[in-house]
Amino acid sequence: MALLEVTNLSKYFGGLAAVDNVSMEANEGEILGLVGPNGAGKTTMFNLVTGFFRPSRGKIVFKGKNVTGRKPNWIAEKGIVRTFQAANTLFQMRTVRENVLIACHLQYRAGFLRVLLNTPFARREEQETEQHALDLIQTMGLSPVKDEYAGNLPHGHQRMLGVCLALAASPQLLLLDEPVTGLTAEETSTFIGRLRELRDSGITILLVEHNMRAVMGGCDRIIVLNHGRKIAEGSPEEIRANDEVIEAYLGVDADVT
Ligand SMILES: Nc1ncnc2c1ncn2[C@@H]1O[C@H](COP(=O)(O)OP(=O)(O)OP(=O)(O)O)[C@@H](O)[C@H]1O
Ligand SMILES: [Mg+2]
What we know:
The structure is a single chain. The chain is of the alpha/beta class. The protein has ten helices and ten strands. It folds into two domains: 1-79 and 173-257, 3-Layer(aba) Sandwich (Rossmann fold); 94-170, no CATH class. The strands form two sheets. The protein has a six-stranded mixed β-sheet, with helices on both faces. A four-stranded antiparallel β-sheet has the order 2-1-4-5, with helices on one face. Helix 3 (96-105) crosses helix 5 (120-139) and helix 3 (96-105) packs parallel to helix 6. The relative contact order is 0.18. It binds adenosine-5'-triphosphate and magnesium ion. The site of adenosine-5'-triphosphate has 11 residues, from strand 2 and helix 1. The site of magnesium ion (MG) has 3 residues, from helix 1.
């Protein structure tokens, strides 16, 4: 069974179909690439799946449950979590550790009153939360910079931090919108390696990305959008050889080799 099942999904802005009758599935434990030229509808698709936009038509099913039209918080609690195209940190003037800890605390179960009363349960949760934050920091390779201000980090580390913050919400489906933009080739390949580790740990990943080397090297399967429509779907090899895809990218600064 597919983890995410999107059926005949459309989103209109006035007369423009930003997403036009798209059906797609994300299977458990895969990195699924969502690519296409600027304005193809990729971010709109993310906004629909995560509840930031209400679809004009169509259906979104997650783990067999209809989540169409639900609010972002509700959807995040069910296990679909995203990063944003530009923002990577919660607080620039807090350290990496503090940022991740705050994100983890948003998941905190102990409750404010018990924290105030300093009950044993709350104390234990506090320790567990701290450990969880440090584990996430290590997973994304940020241990050496955990005490640096988030705002002072190089770009590559800020991107890793963005993923850490999303992971704090314990996603089953993680949506990443152009996570390697601005990264060096080396940072990009490190980043993709970490995504593959996350996938191997059981997190399904939907990756929007213009960097074709990252997409071709990192994704198990790829879906191509153009003008809101799905024009191709397949393995990286199939996509690379697809004439319609090559044509969609003509004149666009993308390296499909
Ligand atoms: N809130 C909005 N209101 C009106 N039009 C919108 C809105 N959001 C997106 N659009 C339009 O929908 C189309 C798809 O935009 P979208 O941001 O989904 O593209 P994209 O594939 O993410 O592009 P990029 O690669 O540049 O990020 C574009 O024509 C865009 O101008
Ligand atoms: Mg976009």
